[in-house]
Amino acid sequence: MLPDSVVIFSKIKAPNLHSLHVDASRVGADATGFKISEDAYPSLTSLTLVFTRSLLWDIGIYKNLRELKLQTWLDLKIRSDILETILMRPRDFPALETIGLAGLPFECDILLLMLERKNIYAQPGISPIKKLIWRRIPLPYHLLYSITMLLRGMFPDQETYTGFSLDAVGQRMFNESSTGCEMCCYSFRPCSTPTQAGPKTQPTRFWYEECGPRYVAKDIVADPPLTSDLKEWLAGKNERRFSFFHSDREIQGRFHRNYSCPAVRHSPSYFTITGSSLDEFGSDAREERPGLVRGCRARD
Question: What domain of life does the native source organism fall in (predicted)?
Answer without folding.
Answer: Eukaryota
